[in-house]
UniProtKB/TrEMBL annotation:
It comes from Ramlibacter humi. Pfam families: Hen1_L, Methyltransf_23. This is Small RNA 2'-O-methyltransferase. NCBIfam families: bacter_Hen1. The keyword S-adenosyl-L-methionine applies. Residues 250-270 are annotated as: Disordered. It catalyses: small RNA 3'-end nucleotide + S-adenosyl-L-methionine = small RNA 3'-end 2'-O-methylnucleotide + S-adenosyl-L-homocysteine + H(+). Residues 260-270 have a biased composition (Basic and acidic residues). Belongs to the methyltransferase superfamily. HEN1 family. The keyword Cytoplasm does not apply. GO terms for molecular function: metal ion binding; RNA binding; small RNA 2'-O-methyltransferase activity. Keywords: Magnesium, Metal-binding, Methyltransferase, RNA-binding, RNA-mediated gene silencing, S-adenosyl-L-methionine, Transferase.
Amino acid sequence: MLLTITTTHRPATDLGYLLHKNPARLHSRRQSYGVAHVFYPEAGDDRCTAALFVEVDPVGLVRDRKGFSATAGLMDQYVNDRPYAASSLLSAAMADTFGSAMGGRSADRPELVEIPIPLEFTLPALPCRGGESLLRALFEPLGYHVDARQLSLDDRFPSWGASQYFSVALKTTSTLHLALTHLYVLIPVLDNTKHYWVDEDEVEKLLAKGEPWLSTHPQRDLIVRRYLKHRRSLADLAIDRLVESDGSAIDDAGAADGTETVRGDEQEQRLERGMSLNERRMESVAGVVEALRASSVIDLGCGEGRLLKQLLPMKGVSRVTGMDVSHRSLQVARERLNLERMSKMLQDKLTLLHGSLVYRDARFNGYDVATVVEVIEHLDESRLGIFTRVVFEFARPKAVVVTTPNSEYNAKFPSLPAGRFRHPDHRFEWTRAQFEEWAQQQAHRFGYAVRFESIGDADPTLGAPTQMAVFTNQQ
């Protein structure tokens, strides 16, 4: 089983820094199914190639099946295609041997990590269960030039016809870490099987490796189903979370006057510029948490960690957790909070979780206060019922703090066209009466009392720009 990676970036031997593998050495690592070797057939300033060669023991795969999932007619037999054809075994070897590169880390040359470079990947035997059209449908939307040659079953017997295997060269200009995640996910998708049991941990692996490209891929659903071995419950979970995490997409509609489009967060910040509204939201919510004398807080939909930064220094709060559906936002939160440089006391206090507000999660349980700041408007109204059960019925904290825009106040923003929302990913924006009616219904349904507060300078007629509901558990 072979994968080669070639670059003509100058100096091309920078590939060694990106892969954390010295071109002058042979690197070998034992795997549970054989041995993975990394070596460089060529290493010069103009061109450098790294090869990952995986020796697979097919007899061992059949005899020692612990941790492996059998596929009838494939790995039930001593003679199979696993030593030769690219498969999930190759993806596993990539993760083990190129883990730092795939994670976007380079200790010696960190500046190289985010530089797009010309790359060519070759796979001499790639299963394409779906044919060349599927191969192109998976890689071409990601910017690859695909050169594929279908292999015959046996060159000596042309009448036997073509096989499902292709010799493939993939060319692109990309950061290496992003391209490696493409291969890691899509190789087993093309093979349409995996050598191990797939469970919910595999969903997390897919979401981590598929960010930021998978949520907008035109073949997203097919990729998810095949990667998760057609386990419908896991595929539905992954697709829902990918849909929710795609809230930072560009507003394609643009402004009414034809000015350039802006990302949703930037659009909202421009509207609120000069009001310090986001800071006032965080201060108001933090003030409620302090007044409730909470010792533990979970911020559901924590984004980039702005509220967490307010909560961490509070003396009475011993446990702070931030949860978000976006891996990217959690990474930004880590950086903004300077997690690596934080004192051990604060590090022990803080936990960051990747999760979803529309799935029951035992990790949300046991907190004094749950905060949901400018989040509900990003959910489809049809899914609010699921959200309320997750928070109020299953997690059931002592108090819940929810903030959301007041749509009546939108008339105060001269640059916001009538009928448009403040953020392109908002699925709705409520008036004060609508929000209060919804909040009172949830309070009555789940046994909470609720009170309302305004955030920001209020207009006598239109109210304040942000509205807040504070729920307290009465049972």
